[in-house]
Amino acid sequence: MPRNEGVRYHTISEVSELLGVEPHVIRYWEKEFPQLRPRRIAGRRFYGSKEIKLLRRIKHLLYEKGYTISGARKVLSGDDSGEVSCREILAEVRRELEELYRSLS
After folding, report:
1. Which parts of the chain register pLDDT below 50?
2. Which residues contact 3 (CB under 8 A, 6 or more apart)?
């Protein structure tokens, strides 16, 4: 496994297991998030701590915060002005529907 100044690099299989997502998901995220660029040696991907931290953030934004790929991309690029997660939108719609239901009852 390649080493650089004491930094440990991990294969896509190791990172996949660490994050709890399939390797194809990580490869897809590489295409969608330009910030994510693992080292490539002899055609194999190797992820350092910086890439793993970014992958964790991407997973958090998509899976826990409910962002779309586009929204998460904006957040990671620093342009999250006005970006609202899907869950936040759904929560607001639910509140409005409950209020409407109460007013009709």
Report:
1. 1-3
2. 9
Say what the pLDDT of residue 33 is: 95
pTM of the model: 0.70
The number of helices, as runs of H, and strands, as runs of E, in the chain is 5, 5
Which helix (H) or strand (E) segment holds residue 92: the answer is helix 86-104
Task: Outline where DSSP puts E strands in 16-86.
Answer: 39-41, 44-47
- Backbone phi and psi for residue 10, each to the nearest 5 degrees, phi listed first: -120, 150
The one-character DSSP state at 65 is: S
Residue among 28, 35, 46, 30 nearest 79 (CA): 35
